[in-house]
Design goal:
It is built from eleven helices and six strands. The strands form three sheets. It has a two-stranded antiparallel sheet. Strands 3-4 form a two-stranded antiparallel sheet. It has a two-stranded antiparallel ribbon with strand order 5-6. Helix 8 runs antiparallel to helix 9, helix 8 runs parallel beside helix 10 and helix 9 runs antiparallel to helix 10. By secondary structure, it is mainly alpha-helical.
Length: 335
């Protein structure tokens, strides 16, 4: 009933987005799980949250929100974690593909897209800090003392804003060196993420060009599947807080697989077009800034896009919506 309700009908009751009782038992102050979706997600993997240690709970309370999730159609808009097969990006892709779940259909390529939320906990679980038993709270809510009392700082923030009480507790380097190492990791991840973005953009337009050339949904499905997977992998890292720092090696692996998906999609399309004696366009529209990207996407939504294969021809008319609507069970298939 709660999940099916309209947010605007409930917002007047919200005083604080996060309160003490979200993480603490009001009588004992012990850490607790208040979100059914986390309990159910862990149970789907055979994990009993009641057996978690206090240190594990210092991350699990964060995992109530900082995770990948979706709203299952039945029961209506039921908040669900896609953890039945596991918590890696590959596990989730397998889960979503098996149930044919779709968040939205891309207006340019007609690809059924998965929108990552913010799988911070899942990525953190693959990193060295989780392996060493370091909890989210150790870095983002470091201990402090006042009047001889030691407690966690509830001003949740980036560890880089308080290196001495977060990072430097374990890493005995200067603050400048610690910051430099973190930013070097983030710069590498950001650079790779940008390369994946560029390849995905080109793959979406290649799909649009292939539709203009007359390729049908059956012929385009292999390329669309690759783009769907590549975009989710890109988004899995892009939607994470920390620009890959929570698990640098896993972030780069995921982005590498996403880049491979996008490039393979372009190869598949180039081969399919070659069989028809058609080459893919030499250039793609300029979507370098948000305003330009919005206008291009809008032109496809309004069916007024400039043809990619022959810019001098009349505006392209994509296939009818019904031909590419998500399969039954999909969620929010907006185009």
């Amino acid at each position: 009933e709660f999940y099916a309700a309209n947010f605007h009908d409930l917002k007047s009751e919200i005083k604080n987005p996060i309160g003490c009782q979200d993480c603490h038992d009001p009588k004992t102050q012990n850490l607790r799980i208040t979100r059914p979706a986390l309990r159910e997600g862990l149970a789907a993997m055979g994990v009993n949250v009641e057996s978690a240690t206090h240190q594990e709970m210092r991350s699990l309370v964060c995992a109530q929100c900082h995770v990948e999730y979706y709203f299952a159609p039945q029961p209506k808009n039921y908040l669900t974690f896609p953890w039945k097969k596991g918590t890696t990006v590959d596990d989730m892709l397998s889960y979503y593909d098996e149930m044919q779940f779709v968040d939205w259909v891309h207006p340019i390529s007609r690809t059924p897209i998965l929108k990552a939320q913010h799988p911070d906990y899942e990525l953190y679980k693959t990193g060295v800090h989780a392996y060493r038993g370091v909890a989210c709270a150790d870095c983002h809510m470091p201990y402090k003392s006042e009047g001889g009392v030691k407690f966690t700082d509830h001003h949740v923030t980036s560890p880089l804003l308080n290196i001495s009480r977060s990072c430097a507790v374990c890493h005995r380097w200067s603050e400048s060196e610690i910051r430099g190492r973190v930013e070097a990791i983030q710069d590498k991840v950001a650079s790779t993420r940008a390369k994946v973005e560029e390849a995905l953009v080109k793959a979406h337009f290649d799909l649009a060009a292939a539709m203009e050339a007359g390729l049908g949904d059956t012929e385009l499905e292999p390329a669309r599947t690759l783009v769907r997977h590549g975009q989710f992998r890109w988004d899995y890292v892009a939607a994470n807080n920390g620009m890959g720092f929570h698990s640098p090696q896993e972030s780069m692996r995921i982005l590498g697989d996403g880049l491979n998906d996008a490039q393979n999609a372009r190869i598949v399309l180039a081969k399919a077009l070659a069989k028809k004696g058609v080459a893919t366009p030499d250039e793609t529209p300029d979507v370098s800034v948000r305003a330009k990207a919005f206008e291009i996407a809008k032109s496809y939504v309004d069916r007024q896009a400039t043809p990619l294969m022959n810019p001098e021809a009349p505006a392209a008319t994509p296939p009818e919506k019904a031909a590419t609507d998500p399969k039954p069970g999909a969620s929010n298939p907006s185009i």
